[in-house]
Structure formats: structure tokens, C-alpha cells
Amino acid sequence: MSTTHYRACHLCEAICGLVIETEGEQVLSIKGDPNDPLSRGHICPKAVALKDLHEDPDRLRRPVARTVAADGSVTWREETWDEALERTAQALAEAVQQHGVHSIGAYLGNPAVHNYGMLTHQGNLFRLLRTNNRFSATSVDQLPHHLAALWLFGHKLLFPIPDIDRSDYFLMLGGNPIASNGSIWTVPDVRKRIKALKARGGKLVVLDPRRTETAELASEHHFIRPGSDVLFLLAVLNTLFEEGLADPAHLAAYTTGLEDVAAAITDFTPEFAAVQTGIDADTLRRIARELAAAQAGICYGRMGVSVTEFGALNQWLIQIINIATGNLDKEGGSLFTSPALDNVQHSSPGGFARHHSTVRGLPEFDRELPVAALAEEITDAGDERIRVLFTGAGNPVLSTPNGAQLDAALDQLDFMVSLDPYINETTRHADIILPPTSPLEHDHYDMAFHLNAVRNTARFNDAIFDKPEGSLHDWEIFSELGQRLAARLGVDSQPAVEPAQIIDMGLQSGPYGTTSGSEHALSLEKLKANPSGVDLGPLRPTLPGRLMTPEKQIRCNTPEPMADLARVRQHFGTSSNTALTLIGRRHVRSCNSWMHNFHRLVKGKDRCTLMMNPQDMADRGIEDGAMVEVSSRVGKLTVTAESTDEIMPGVASLPHGYGHGRAGVRMDIAVRNAGVSCNDLTDDRLLDALSGNAALNSVPVEVTPC
Ligand SMILES: Nc1nc2c(c(=O)[nH]1)N[C@H]1C(S)=C(S)[C@@H](COP(=O)(O)OP(=O)(O)OC[C@H]3O[C@@H](n4cnc5c(=O)[nH]c(N)nc54)[C@H](O)[C@@H]3O)O[C@H]1N2
Ligand SMILES: Nc1nc2c(c(=O)[nH]1)N[C@H]1C(S)=C(S)[C@@H](COP(=O)(O)OP(=O)(O)OC[C@H]3O[C@@H](n4cnc5c(=O)[nH]c(N)nc54)[C@H](O)[C@@H]3O)O[C@H]1N2
Ligand code: SF4
Ligand SMILES: [Mo]
After folding, report:
1. Is 123 among the domain residues?
2. The domain spanning residue 36 has which CATH number?
3. What pLDDT, on the 0 to 100 scale, is given for residue 349?
4. What is the pLDDT of residues 509-532, one digit of tens each?
């Protein structure tokens, strides 16, 4: 007898609704849930990995501790939860008592944001570890979006969301949602939505150094030289002002400083941009005019513009363009969501540059330092160094710049603990690994991504399988560690409230909650009764009410990005680069570094190849399929070259998240499909100097035949 379960997929930001059939302990099938009001039945090939992950024999079920024999060989032995948690709490407490709280470092990775128990309960531990040495995947990713949101709208999470379903013009820079399923933009089934936009006479214009899957679907695609988008965006804005097309319309009543921006950028002409971007001035002017003329238009940029040397300026400019064209807070433009559980109300607005890293003086954002500084804060910070490291749901050895350097630095720690289900490239350095339950063994509410979604919806799902004897959820591990550490430090500990209870309180007191008078009268009970989710309607204008800035004003002349314009002038005035520029690549069957242990997702042709333009290969005497050596300032590696005119001349593309061939990785299938790590080439010194975000997407490299 099979049982039907409902569950939202947490593997990427699209949060698709799923229908999962099980029998006993077996998952029989995983399908899209047609009744989910957001995803409407959409699903991608990764969803079935939930079964593979659940059943994976390499997934740890018990804590393990590493021991190194005299000959250097490593063995892992299972420990009881009590032993592992006690030893961890002891190590943390000793570090705090002997060297102060900053001697502890912490890194949280991407899945921590997709797992609501990790979001609700990490504070139970970190409340006690108020270290300046906190890091996360934010600074190899969306940090520029947070800064632009903080500067313009007053809160790090106030992201304007592209309202694609009602738009008629979409200018997209450096995003590939057909492969990624959208980012800082929860947009399940984006293919159907792009097709619908085109069918109603709308236009999608994509700027990308690679003719991506999204570019193939677009009305227009233009190659753009990596790292040069800032000049394109400045010239678009310049054109809008120059031609009198800037009209903030309904925003004017609470928007100031736009004229200062106009005055500051008069020298960034389309002609100047053309030289560096490779996009001619007429095309640029036409795009600016079309965007301004659209009934409702969108300018959006993602990883390709965020993780470059001008990431923060780019994201700020994108918002200034949306303001100048009057497309912010407009149906079919970009709007703020009105989620059932509003993290904007429940979290701090965030702050910037209130303290700095010890070695390089890089600025914090929201109490976190740029992860490009993690290795040096372990090895080069003297008495201020990180001695003990906590990692949770992260794999920074494969995901952060100069990963090989970090890999080596982790060996110098006094103690490391990882909250993770796998022994991978990072956690292999841990003294203790604490593995949580499988995702199908805990309930789920998406606390993060409803906030970024193209429609307001809410969905809660119960666990599919019972929690096995002798296992702990991520949130329980945080609570347990917090309590044990508090006891040692002689402070009060937080009582363990279940995450679902926290969600219930948030829902009930939220804008659609039982106490709000809303017709939806949301509560946990109501969501449990509607396991495919509750529809709360399309995005709607919320300004100026939703602004978190003083006096609810949008101040466009933000000092930090305005000052950063000088760096643009200097950068493009001097640099003349003959090397190839390395960019990344995502594939729909992979996700960052941890989806390579599932046969169904990795089978088929090798995807960890260096894509190059045929002309660049011919110039270097490289045949299609040949092995090449790729080198950068920080490292070199050998990989197969793939010839394709998808890539513009002067550019090479290598996906990240591979490089599983390091000793001691216990992920059998991944090791057999090891690939190489692109982040052994990316440079911990190549940053967006304004934000500290890594510039992973514009790294100079040399490529030579082997
Ligand atoms: N060159 C280059 N580098 C990049 C990028 C790029 O485009 N190019 N992209 C960057 C981006 S956008 C990101 S977000 C980062 C990602 O960087 P990270 O977050 O550091 O890396 P992931 O590969 O997501 O690693 C996830 C880890 O979480 C574990 N995990 C999975 N689910 C759970 C769970 O439920 N609980 C716990 N405790 N652990 C879990 C997995 O086993 C794995 O070890 O990589 C960045 N690195
Ligand atoms: N299948 C899959 N889905 C994922 C992930 C995954 O690893 N696999 N990761 C998830 C995560 S953590 C994130 S953050 C999102 C990311 O979501 P996206 O940002 O949509 O995904 P990317 O593929 O990184 O897209 C970046 C694009 O920028 C282009 N690009 C590179 N450099 C430049 C440049 O200088 N200028 C311009 N204009 N373009 C440039 C690249 O060619 C690429 O097409 O995806 C999420 N979804
Ligand atoms: S698109 Fe993302 S959320 Fe949807 S099924 Fe695929 S991995 Fe899951
Ligand atoms: Mo990401």
C-alpha cells in the first residue's frame, strides 16, 4: 500500500511543490505537484535526488570522529551523540576561555538557507559565540544584492522581484535561470514564463559571455566581456538621463538624489562602454530606449554581475535603472513581496563595515566577513587567529576562491567540527562530523525563498519518514550544542522550541495571520490542511510603506557606490588584458558541490570541461577534446577543453563544485566523477573592493596545450 505525501523541494531557490509516493521505507516516485500555486507542477531532474540523498550509503547516520595514525593514515570512528556533542562543546568552551570568542570561526553554506530549522536555531549556538570571525557563502554570491537593498530600501532583504508574468520587457545580465531555476528570484518553471512573455509580444534581452540555455530562448542575446557590465549599466543610465527618458513617475514623491547620480555619470557614454563591453553604442542606446518605453520593464542581474570586481556597484545601478524608468514597485516591473512570514520584520536590517578582518582589513556585512579572508585569518593573524572552526552545510574548499589554500589552512586548526551529512573536501579536515537527519525526515517551511518569489504563497509540509532512532535534526544539534556550551560558560541556555512552533507564531501574527483579520487566517494548522500550499495572490505595490529607510525615502545618491565610480574610471582607464577570462557555468543536473554522488544526475558526458571559443583554441593549437593546462595567479589544473561558439572569444568557462579527487573524500560516485575545482584557479585577492565579495566570474587565466 503506497502513501502520498506533499513536499516542497528545497534543493534550489525555485521551491517546487512535489508529490512523493512511498511504501514503507521506500520512495516510489517523486513528481511535480500541479496544485502548488507557485510551481504549478514544474519539477527539474534534481528533485529525484531527494530519494538518492535519502538512500545514499555514503550519507552519515551517526557522528564520526577522525583519528590519524602514526603513519598519517586517517580513520573515522562512530561516536555516540553524547560523546561527539560533549567533545565539541568542550573544544568550543576551551577556545573561548583561553583565547576569547574571536578565536572561533564559523562558516555556514548555502543549504543552511534552504533548511528552516537551521535558520530558526543557529542562534541557539551563535548567540554564545559572538565572534567577529563569521563567514558564509554570501560573500561568494549575493552580498552585492544585500548592500544595494540596505542602501536604497533600508533592509538587507528588501529585494525587488522581477514580475515576469506581467512584464513586457526584460533586460537580464549574467543570469541563467533555465539552468539555475532562478536566483534572488524564485521563479519555478521560468521557461514557460519566458515563453509567455514572448507570446504576448514582450522581449527578453540577455547579456552574457556565453550563449546560455536562457540566451537561446531570448529575443536577443549579446555577448558581453566578463567584468565590463558596470560600463554597460552606467551607459544605459547615462542614456536615460541624456535623452530625457528618466521618469521615476509614481516613485518621485519619495525618491531623492537621482539628479546627483545623473550629474556623476555624464562621462560614461555608450561609446566608452562599447570599447570595453564589445556591445556597440547604437545597440546599447536602443536597449535603453526600449526599456524606458516598455509599459512595464525589468532590469535584473545575477551571478554574472554580482561576483565580479564591481558587484555591489552593478546591483546598485540595476536598482537605480529600475527607479529611473519608474519600473520599481510597478506591476510587471520589480516589486517587493508580501510573504506570510516576513523576514524583513523578523531580522535586523544589516550593517556594513562596522568591523574589519584582522589581516587584510576587509569589511564585515551583517556581522560576517568576506570568506576570501578565511584562510589567512587561520594562518596569518597571529594571536588573533582562528583556532577552532565550525562549518555547517558548507563546502568552502570547493566553493570559495583559492580553495587549495583554504584546504591547506584547515590543517592548522586546533579543532574543527562540521555539521554535515558527508565526508567531503571540507569536512574531511574536521575532528568531528555531526550529521543531521535526511531532508525527508524533517518537516519543511521555506523561510527564505517565499520572500523572493514571483507570487505570494505559503506552504508547510510534514516529514515524510519518521526520524530514525538515534538521529538528530540540524536544529536539534544547534540546540544541544548551545545548551552544552552554555553550561560550560555558565550562562543561561535557550529553551528548545520546535521550528514548526516558531513558524506557527510567525504565520499567525503575520499579515495574513489569524490575528490580522485577513480572509486567509493563516496558521500552521491551516497550512497543514492545505499541503500543496495557499495562494496569497500576485505581487502588488507596497511603497512607500514597505521601505525601512529613515522617513521612508529612497535616497539614490548613496555615498558608497557613488564614491566607487572613481574606481571604475581607474580600472578601465588602465587595464589591458591579453589573457583569457575565466567564468563559471551551471547545469540543471548539478547544484554547487554536493550533487555529484547521485548516479542519475552525473551519468552521461563529462560536464566538468573548459569551454573555449574555436578561435582561441586554434590560436593556441588546442584540439577539441584535448587536455589543457589552465593557470592563474594562484594555481593550475589540467582539464579537457571543449570547443564551442557558445563562448565568446577571449573567455573560458569551467563549472565550480567539482574536484572530488582529494584524498579521503567518502562520496563514492562523486570521486569516480571527480573533475577539477574551478576555485583552485579563482583568486582570494580578486574581490569587489567595495563589498569584499569574491570576483569568481572574471579571473585572468592562461591556457596551454598539455
Ligand atoms: N567559481 C565559483 N564558485 C562558486 C560559485 C560560482 O558560481 N563559481 N557559486 C557560489 C555560490 S552562488 C554558492 S551559494 C556557493 C555554495 O557554497 P557552499 O554552500 O559552501 O557549498 P555547497 O556546495 O552548497 O555545499 C553544501 C554542503 O552542505 C551539505 N548539506 C546539504 N544539505 C544539508 C543539510 O540539510 N544540512 C546540513 N547540515 N548540511 C547539508 C552538503 O553535504 C555540502 O557539504 O558556492 C559559490 N562558489
Ligand atoms: N542547476 C543548478 N541550479 C542552481 C545552482 C547550481 O549550482 N546548479 N546553484 C544555485 C545557486 S547557489 C545560485 S546562487 C544560483 C545562481 O543563479 P544564476 O546566476 O542564474 O546562475 P549562473 O549559471 O551562475 O549564471 C551566471 C551567468 O552569468 C554569466 N556571466 C559570467 N560572467 C559574466 C559577466 O561578467 N557578465 C555577464 N553579463 N554575465 C556573466 C555566465 O555565463 C552565466 O550564464 O543558482 C542556483 N541554482
Ligand atoms: S527546480 Fe529546484 S526546487 Fe524545483 S525541483 Fe528542481 S531542484 Fe527542486
Ligand atoms: Mo548561491
Report:
1. yes
2. 3.30.200.210
3. 98
4. 999 999 999 999 999 999 999 999
Position 507 confidence tier, pLDDT thresholds 50, 70, 90: very high
- Taking only the tens place, the pLDDT of each residue in 575-613 is 555 689 999 999 999 999 999 999 999 999 999 999 999
How is 201-248 classified by DSSP, letter by letter? T-EEEEE-SB--HHHHHSSEEE---TT-HHHHHHHHHHHHHHTT----
Which stretches within 56-136 are classed as H helix? 81-99, 116-126
Which residues face 19 on adjacent strands? Answer: 6, 31
Helix, strand or coil, per DSSP, at residue 660: coil
Q: Residue 191 domain-assigned?
A: yes
Ligand nearest to the CA of 276: 2
353 and 459 belong to one structural domain? yes
Query: Residue 353 is part of a domain; what is its CATH number?
Result: 3.40.50.740
Q: 391 and 477: one domain?
A: yes
Same domain, 195 and 311: yes
Question: Which residues are near ligand 3 (CB < 6 Å)?
Answer: 9, 11-12, 14-16, 43-44, 46-47, 181, 188
Q: Check if 434 has its Cβ closer than 6 Å to any atom of ligand 1.
A: no
By most ligand atoms within 8 Å of CB, the mutation choice from 139, 142, 399 for ligand 1 is 399
Residue 228 and residue 171 share a domain: yes
- DSSP 3-state of 631: strand
With contact defined as beta carbons under 8 Å apart, do 221 and 211 qualify?
Answer: yes
| 186 in a structural domain | yes
For residue 399, how far is its CA from the centre of ligand 4 (angstroms)?
10
- Boundaries of domain holding 309: 160-334+547-563
Atom index in ligand 2 nearest the CA of residue 44 equals 1
Q: Whose CA is nearest to atom 39 of ligand 1?
A: 393
Q: Are residues 467 and 599 in the same domain?
A: no
Give me ligand 3 centre to Cα 596, in Å.
Answer: 16
Question: What beta strand segments (E) does 483-589 contain?
Answer: 534-538, 554-555, 580-583
User: Could you tell me if the CB of 228 is within 6 A of ligand 1?
Assistant: no
Q: Mutation test of ligand 2: which of 11, 302, 305, 399 has the most ligand atoms closer than 8 Å to its C-beta? A: 302
